[in-house]
From TrEMBL, chain A:
The lineage of its organism: Bacteria, Bacillati, Bacillota, Clostridia, Lachnospirales. The chain crosses the membrane at residues 12-35, 47-65, 95-119, 125-149, 156-176, 182-201, 208-228, 248-276. It comes from Catenibacillus scindens. Residues 44-181 form the ABC-2 type transporter transmembrane domain. This is ABC-2 type transport system permease protein. It is found in: Cell membrane. Its main location: membrane.
From TrEMBL, chain B:
The keyword ATP-binding applies. The keyword Lipid metabolism does not apply. This is ABC-2 type transport system ATP-binding protein. Residues 2-231 form the ABC transporter domain. It comes from the Bacteria. Pfam families: ABC_tran. Keywords: ATP-binding, Nucleotide-binding, Transport. One of its GO terms (molecular function) is ATP binding. Belongs to the ABC transporter superfamily.
Amino acid sequence: MAAIYKKEVRSYFTSMIGCVFIAFALVIIGLYFFANNLYGGYPYFGYSLSATIAVFMILIPILTMKSMADDRRQKTDQMLLTAPVTTWQIIFAKYLAMVTVFLVPVCVMLFYPLIMAAYGTISYAMAYASIFGFALMGFLGIAVGMFISSLTESQVISAVLTFLILFASYMAESIADMIPSTAWVSMAAFIILILAVALIVHSMTQSTLLGGGVAVIGVAVILILYFMDSTSFQGAFGDLISSLSLTGHFYNFASGIIDIPGIIYYLSGSFLFIFLADQAVEKRRWC
Amino acid sequence: MIEVKNLVKKYGDHVAVDHLTFTVEKGQIYGFLGPNGAGKSTTMNIMTGYIGATEGEVLIDGHDILKDAQEAKKCIGYLPEIPPVYPDMTVEEYLHFSAQLKGVKKSEQEAQIERVMKMTEVEDVAGRLIKNLSKGYRQRVGLAHAIMGFPPIIILDEPTVGLDPKQIIEIRQLIRELSKEHTIILSSHILSEISEICDYVMIIAHGKLIASDTTQNLTKMMQGQNIYNFLVKGEKDQVRQALEQIGGIEKIDINPYREENIVDVTVECSVEPAHDGRDVSADEESVKTTRRDYREEIFYALAHAECPMMASAKYVSLEDIFLELTEETDAQNINKKEKRRFLLKRPKAEEVQDNGSDL
C-alpha cells in the first residue's frame, strides 16, 4: 500500500496536476485573504475561506479526475489488481495520495491567521476551526471525485461529472429554499424519488419484479405514512435536499463551532464514497 | 501448481471461456495456443485474479485466487497483453515501484532490480521515460515487472508481440532460462513460437480446450498417419487412375486448385508397412521408422501417367493440427473420435489470407 501511495503522490508532481492544483489553490486563497483580511481588515479568516469554495468545486475535480480513470485507460490497473494487494488498499492509497496533495495548500493556510494576528486581535479558535472544517469538506469532495473517476475511463467525463455533483451539492441549500414546504408537495416529491430509484434498480438488475417491488412498496409506505401523520411531511423534502449540502456544515465551522455531526457527516461521507469506488472496481471485475 | 476447474466466463450472452479445466505442473513451459478471440487472454486474466470467473475456480499452489487472493497473487508474475507500464515514470522508477508493490524486501530491492534489468536487457534505457520507449522496450519493461520478485509462476500473454526477430530470440532464451526455476505459461497465436519453446501445448478455440498434450505427442499424432498432399498438373480422372495403380491407398481426394489445369490432391494411405507385415500399430515409435513411404511410388505413378507433380506435401506441423482442430470447432461438429483424425487440407486461397494474418 505504501508503494502505491508513494507512486501516486510522486505522479501528481511529475504530471503537473498536483503543482497546478496547489498553485491555483494558493493564488485564490491568497487573493481572498489579501482582499478581505489584510486590505479590508476583516478579522475572520473563515469568511475568506468560504468565498473560495466555489473555486474548489472546480479544483477538486481536476485533482481527482485521473485517479482511477487513467489507470483503467492505460491498463495499468492490471498491474495493481494482479499484485499482492487488496482492492481496498489500492483505493485507499490513491485516496490518501490525493488528500496529501490537497493538504499542502491547507497547511500553508495555517500560517494566515498568524499573519493576521500581527496586525490586530483575532480569534485563533475560529480561524483554525474553519480551516479544519474546510479540510474535512475537501476530504469528502475528493472521495466523491474518486468514486466518479472509478466509473469511467475518461478523465474529462470524470472531471465534468464531479464538478456537476459538487456544484449541485453546493447549491443544495438554495434549491431546498425554493421547494414549497407543504406536506403534499413533499409527499409527491418522495413518490417521484422512489419511482426514480425503482427505475434505476430495474435497469441495473433487469428484474421487473425487483424494480416493481421497490416502486409498489416504496409508494405504499409513503402513502401510509402520509395519511397517518401528514404534518411530519411538511418541508421534509427540502430538508432531505439541504442535508446533501456539502457546505452546510462548513459554515458552522466557519462561524467557530466545532460541529460534531459535521465531523461525522464529512468523515462518514468520505468513507461511503471510498467504499463505493471500491465496489465500482470490484464490480467491473465481474462483468 | 495451478489447478483450473470448470472455468466459465460470460460477457452477457457471449461465452468467452467455456468450462475450461486443466492443471499445470511445476517446472515446465506451457503454451496457450488459439486464434484471436479464443479466450486465451480472458483465461489468463482470470488465473491472475484480474477479473472474476462466472463459474469455476482457480487454485494457485493451493490458494484460491479469489478467497486467498494475496497469497495466490504472490506466486504469480503476470505480463498482460498490453504491458501495464506508467508512461510518466522512468524505467528505473517503474521497477522500483514494481519491487515495492510485490513486497520485495528492502535489502534485496536494489540487487534484484539490477538483476531483472540485466535479464531483460533494459539497463540502457533505465533512466528514460517509458512513454519515450519503443514498443519492444515497453514489452521488456513489462516482462521485467512480471519476473520481479521471482515468483514461482510466470504468466506471459503474447510476450513476443512487437519485438524484432533478434529480440524475439533473446526473449525466448530468457524464457528458457527462467523455466529452470519457474513454471511458465505463455500464450501466442504464433505456432512456431509455441512449438519451439513450450513443453506442453493447450489449444483453445471458442473458449474450449480442444487439445492438450506435450508438443512431441501432438506432432507425433500427426505423423502416425500417412497422408500426402500435393499439386498435380493434369485432368482429375487421369490423376485418379494413375494413383489407383498404387496398392495401399485408402482414399483419394481431388479438388480443383486456383491455377488452371492443376488439381489439389490429398491421398490417405494405410499405415501398414506392407513389406514385412509386422504389426506396428501397437508401437508408435516404430511406425515412424518402418512406415512405408509412398512418396516415391506416387511420383513414379504420376510420371508414368505424364502428370507432373507441381508441389508436394508440406511437412506436417503443429500448424496443421491447429488449423484442423480450430476449424472443426468452427463447424460446431466436434466428434470426439474424429478429433484425433486430422485430414490434411491445403487451405483455399481466401482461407490462406484469413489464417495467414492469424498465424
